[in-house]
Amino acid sequence: MVMDARSGEVLHAQNADTPLHPASLTKMMTLYVTFEAIENGEISADTLVSVSRAAADQPPSKLGLRAGQRIALRHLIRASAVRSANDAAHALAEAIEGSVPAFAARMNRTALALGMTRTHFKNPHGLTQGGHVSTARDMTLLGRALFHHYPAYYHLFSREVIDAGGRTVRNTNRALLGAYAGADGIKTGYTRAAGFNLVASAERGNKRVIATVFGGRSSTWRNQRVAELLDLGFEKSRGRVALAMPPRPPYSGSQRAVAIAAAHVVASPVVARSPRPRARPEVPTAMAAAPDTIEAVVIAEAVAAATTPPPATAPATSVAAAPPPRARPEGLLPEQRVAGADTGDELTGTEVTVETAEAAPVEVADAEPIEPAYAEPRIVTRKSAANGKLWAVSLGTQPSQYHADTLLLQTALREVGTLAEAPRKVNRRAGGFEAEFVGLSEIDALRACARLAAGGVACSVTGP
Fold first, then answer.
1. Tell me: the pLDDT tens digits for 314-340?
2. What's the total number of domains in the chain?
């Protein structure tokens, strides 16, 4: 299958709908679901994942995880994308959905929503299992969706070497990446039952083409055939086409995360009557004359809490004190390109190594970012608002939206100088509801959080 990645136009197809074993092409969907989970706050790239015995016991290709080991989710992502590590993919599945069957069910929901109608997944790594099948067309659609939906992570598939938690691993697709001009991903796959599979993407000028091959006789034959298909794609694709973004599947979330959140949500009280609050000197007259609503009661309670002096022996707020700052999380981008050893894609039983190991210099672990010596709270990078005000102050996760709204109101009245006009935002997370002030300048966010922390209010600053 050859497809124009810009428009989705099929440029060439032969046996593209024949169900076959996808092997490690499966990990493209494992990573797609993982990126979705991170984007929607189910889990963080910094989350430390406890490796199960089942994950550690997966056959090669693997990272070499040990049962009971704790490893950052970002390193599992890297090992799955670059090394095609089966133990890492298994650990990702358990970290996100709690079990491989639950994760496979989510993979299948996502595949169907992406239009992969002839695909059925049973595991997150692609080792041969009855009924675990896909097609060249479906995997081409998935490769295009990865490129368009998660561009911030797509660079991983082109990395020739990368650090995966203290171990430098090499890309199983490095032969094509190094030989074909413009190639920048995506994923290899091999098992004895599947043969040599590859989904490859390349860009030249304003053209981007995706080619997929299933069932190659050898890695050399597979790479040569994919190069021919990419050439065909560049030749047949038009110079100027309208970009047609593939539709994103509706977000259904982790069933495990929904269950956890439901167990922690406290039902909001039902208010039978909402008397108007009396006007206070600190409250505008218009607020005092507000109609009988639940919001009026919440505002009144927040005003009372903010204007009542605390007892001499009690903290200024019931919010827990801010935890000590942790080191800045490492990024997914900055790694050195160094040489290292590799044993190729996944193998089972007595199967031989697919890629030939190459002599290389001594492996060097990636340099990590150095934490600046801020006096203010720790800053965590994430996407934020626009208009030049890209910073936010998070007050942490609350058990219900009612609690999050109340805390935001109380805090806005407490820190009027910097937060009174800031937009308030409540995000549903796996553990509850995160309360945030958004749309702040860097100096206002840092000043507000520093003042809150000095008063015993837990907070953190997030930036672009």
1. 444 433 444 444 444 444 433 333 333
2. 2
End-to-end CA distance of the chain: 39
pLDDT digits (tens, 9 = 90+) for 398-409: 998 888 888 888
The answer to the question of residue 63 being in a domain is yes
Residue type, 199: V
Q: What number of other Cβ atoms are within 10 A of residue 341's Cβ?
A: 12
Tell me which DSSP letter residue 134 carries: B
- Of the three residues 212, 236, 260, the one that is the final residue of a domain is 236
Asked whether residue 261 is assigned to any structural domain, the reply reads: no
Whether residue 126 sits in one domain with residue 19: yes
CATH number for 170:
3.40.710.10
Looking at residue 50, its pLDDT comes to: 97
Question: How far apart are alpha carbons 164 and 286 in whole angstroms?
Answer: 58
List, for residues 155-175, the tens digit of each pLDDT value.
999 998 999 988 888 999 999
CA distances from 26 to 72, 105, 153, 234, 244 (A): 22, 13, 17, 26, 25
Most distant CA pair in the chain: distance in Å? Answer: 81
Higher pLDDT, 308 or 228: 228
CA atoms within 13 A on the CB side of 75: 26
Domain carrying residue 380: 285-320+372-463
Average pLDDT value for the chain:
78
Asked, for residue 277, whether it belongs to a domain, the answer is: no
The answer to whether 127 and 351 are in contact (CB under 8 A) is: no
Please report which confidence band the pLDDT of residue 368 belongs to, taking 50, 70 and 90 as the band edges.
very low
Burial call 28-55: b when 16+ CB within 10 Å, e when fewer: bbbbbbbbbbbebbbbbbebebebbeeb
| Whole-structure pTM value | 0.59
Q: What is the CA radius of gyration of the chain?
A: 26
Is residue 419 helix, strand or coil? helix
Catalytic (active-site) positions: 24, 27, 84
Q: Kindly state whether residues 57 and 189 are assigned to the same domain.
A: yes
CA 176 vs. chain centroid, Å, equals: 27
